[in-house]
Amino acid sequence: MVNGDDRMVRVPRDMYDAIGELIKKYPQYGWKGPSEFVRDAIRRYVEELHRREILLEQAKKIMPDRVRVILSKFMGEDEARDVYEKIMKIDESDPEKFIDEVVLILKEHVGEKLAELIARRIVEERGL
Amino acid sequence: MKVSTGIKNLDMIMDGGFVERSFNLVYGGGGTGKTLFTFNFLLNGAETGNSVLYVTLEEAWEDIIRKLPEGMRKRLNAVKNNFHYLDFGSLRPVLGKEIMNVDVLMEAIASSIVVNNVTLVGFDGIAPLSIYYDDEHKLRSVIFNLSQGIKSYGATTVFTSEEIEGRSRYGTEEFVADSVIRLIYTGEKRRIQVLKSRGTDFVGGKHGLEIVSDGLRVYPKILFVGAKIKQKSVSIGIPKLDTMLGETFSGDITLLTGPPGTGKYLFGISFIKNACKQGKKGLFISFEDSVGKIKRRLEDAGDGKSMCRVVYIDSGNIDIYKLMWQLKSLATDANRLVLHGMNNLAGNDEYEDFVHEFLKYVRASGISTMVTYNTSQVIATNTLGDDKIVNLSDNIIKLLFAEIGGELKKILVIIKSHSPTHERGLVEYRLGKSGVVIVGKIEGMEGVMSGTPTRQMEIKKRVESFFK
After folding, report:
1. Up-side HSE of residue B300: CA atoms within 13 Å toward CB?
2. ipTM over 0.85
3. Does B106 sit within 8 Å of A114, measured CB to CB?
4. Mean pLDDT value of segment B16-28
5. How many CB atoms lie within 10 A of CB A92?
6. How far is A56 from chain B (nearest CA, A)?
7. Which residue of chain B is at minimal alpha-carbon distance from A121?
8. Does B76 touch chain A (CB under 8 A)?
9. What angle do CA B397, B399, B404 make, to 5 degrees?
10. What is the pLDDT of residue A128?
């Protein structure tokens, strides 16, 4: 059903065809046509981004303490405190950037791979 | 350049220690002290101003610290600013087996080396690597990569591995390592053996190892004898015996062998007494009689306050190499030494090494030494005791009993001496309160050594009457 406030978006022909095939393949989802499929996909994606934003925000809040606990056992309280204090100085406004900064600080102390593993694990603990 | 192993005597065995920037394997069975060796290496490094790093893949840091002997824990507290650690075992519950990936390990170790200016690394236990690398070939290349990686950062590393059937756990660690040290614990004694040391000399064989509260001690099986001191003529302490021996020199080893009751320790007392009276250091090591007994006799012999030192050593359950180094330390600057009752050590399977090395040392150091050795038979003994001591002795005096005129007399005979003109006859001696008294030569008797002497005249008469 067309609404006056609706706006048009363009999708490439290949993608349009692929959408048609998916509608046929998964009738159980009840998509009535490509427009409904696209609306459903956008809704889900926005929800996902929103959920990710919330979780990153939560992860950002717990990250300094979690890093400190993990590193305390791994390399001792002194070095863990040093890392913690550096993390506490990061600008917290953007959760994604915050986590990237944490990885950078960790990288200096434990190497890139372990830094990413630790950060990823803390984020995963929040359900991402 | 060499880096200390953390144990002074092991450095001597390894020509100064580990080669700088080398990767060194220490392996052994459970309870042999691998972790303590690693810790001792790092503690010594930290105490000498190095920044050090301990890496554990399995046992938690807290547990390791809790199990450390108190003395080592104190050492750690004193240098904790220089002592860093990475406890990968603590990450496993959080991050899973991914942390055993060699790239993850290497990056973390490298970061710590760079951040903390680490020069010495202890990598304790490589067994958990097999969780990630189940293929032996991969594991070999992982250990190789680790060794090359740490070396490239300029650090000298000790890494440990378990011993399985006489070899390191994976059988490949030895090939990667620049030096290989094996730790052995039999349940009674500890031994340490250097099996390989690339590009440097080392002393082979199994050396004594002791774990004490503040670290590890190594007692090499050799004493690193210095240049031989020039010999000079000395007295044995019993005037008539000097004449009988012909000539004795500083650094001589005199073996006194005989059955119990022949007064061997009194010969020993006379031997050191004179030197002590002259203000020289005399040392009486007894494996048999108590300090009290020897001291009383020294006083009886007119040596109340002297430089003579008497030490009793219980020969039961003793580490022979530790004893050897203890004796060396006690004998420093000594002029005379008595080793009383050496037969008490003879049951030890490393006894011959000890005898050879220690007697070689005292001779080279110019310490005149008397060794007393108990033989078991009272009458007609044919043995001189221990072959090793016999071969190394410059003078051999045999003490024996002989029944002469219904009396059990004490006889001595010189079996060997420097001098070609030494007394060859049998000489009677007595033991008095002031020591040994030489009575005189046994004349006109035959068969004394056999324990059943007869007068020479009687034999002559019997022979003559036979032919008549």
Report:
1. 15
2. no
3. no
4. 94
5. 15
6. 19
7. B95
8. no
9. 135
10. 47
- Helix ranges (H only) for B236-394 are 239-245, 264-277, 291-300, 320-330, 351-364, 387-392
Burial degree of A24 (CB within 10 A; 0-12, 13-18, 19+): exposed
Residues B202-217: pLDDT tens digits? 999 999 999 999 999 9
Chain B residue at shortest CA distance from A117:
B95
Mean pLDDT by 10 residues, chain A (128 residues): 80 95 94 93 93 81 91 94 92 84 94 93 74
pTM of the model: 0.84
For residue range A104-114, what is the model confidence (pLDDT) as tens digits? Answer: 999 999 999 99
Residue B80: closest CA among B93, B92, B68? B68
Nearest Cα neighbor of B120 from B236, B40, B191, B186 is B40
Q: Is B444 exposed, middle or buried (0-12, 13-18, 19+ CB in 10 A)?
A: exposed
User: Which A-chain residues 74-93 have CB contacts (< 8 A) with chain B?
Assistant: 74-76, 79
* Confidence check: pLDDT of B45 > 90: yes
B140-to-B74, B151, B411 alpha-carbon distances in Å: 37, 17, 70
Cα separation, B274 vs B338, whole angstroms: 13
End-to-end C-alpha distance for chain A, whole angstroms? 36
Alpha carbons B331 and B365: distance in angstroms, whole number: 10
Q: Quick check: B354 and B320 in contact, CB under 8 A?
A: yes
From CA B200, how far away is CA B15, in angstroms rounded? 7
- B105: its two tokens: 């390990």
| Helical segments of B154-263, H only | 173-176, 239-245
Contacts of A111 in chain B (CB under 8 A): 104, 106-108, 110-111
B94 residue type, one letter: V
Identify the residue whose tokens are 């620049």.
Answer: B178
pLDDT confidence bin for B159, thresholds 50/70/90: very high
CA angle B309, B314, B318 (to 5 degrees): 120
- Residue B303: band (very low, low, confident or very high) from pLDDT cuts 50, 70, 90: low
In terms of Cβ atoms closer than 10 Å to its own Cβ (0-12, 13-18, 19+), residue B290 is: exposed
Of A76, A109, A118, the CB nearest to B111: A109
Cite the DSSP H helix spans in B331-419. Answer: 351-364, 387-392
Residue with tokens 């010189």: B414
Q: How far apart are the C-alpha atoms of B379 and B448, rounded to whole Å?
A: 10
Contact A75 B87 (CB under 8 A): yes
Helix (H/G/I), strand (E/B), else coil: B55: strand
Give chain B positions within 8 Å (CB) of A73: 60-61, 87, 90-91
In chain A, which residues have their Cβ closer than 8 Å to the Cβ of B90? 70, 73-74
Find residue B156's DSSP bridge partners.
Answer: B120
Contact state of B95 with A107 under an 8 Å Cβ cutoff: no
Chain A residue numbers touching B88 (CB-CB < 8 A): 74
Q: Which residue segments constitute the domains of chain B, with CATH numbers given?
A: 2-219 (3.40.50.300), 233-457 (3.40.50.300)
Q: Given an 8 Å threshold on Cβ–Cβ distance, is B61 in contact with A117?
A: no
